[in-house]
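Run log, item B.
One chain of 140 residues. Sequence copied directly from the ordering sheet:
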Amino acid sequence: MRNVASSMTTTDRITPELREWLLRKLRFPVMATIGKDSMPKLSVIWFDLDPERDDVVLLNTLAGRIKDRHLRRDPRVSLCFEEGTDYVTIEGRAELSDDHEKALANIWAMARRYGQGEGSFAMGDRVDITVHVERVIRHR
């Protein structure tokens, strides 16, 4: 068995190389929020990257869902993207927007990006989640 050395890097931005890795194929990050009991709560979520900024990840959820409630109480969030033993963790703080029309348009765009139709997500009042990146950890 071959011993392969791994490397870990840390930055406060999404580098161009990392952006390419994140968008090269459809990825389904696991998002961690903090519950009332102070335990992390995990869920799989669609994402996109802001084309203009290297310190923002875009998410969306249905208003009133547990993610929405957790982030309103505590905006700290972590996203983990994996490909085998390679993974990226993005940590930051969430900013929520209650512009439901804009959020609905954004979830439609994500649905198209993920190759899904408009019926592939829960309808209702949507909330945009902008994650302001504070730390990016890449392990490969």
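Observations after the first pass:
- The CA atoms of residues 109 and 118 lie 9 Å apart.
- Residues 100-113 form the longest helix (14 residues).
Flagged for discussion on Thursday.
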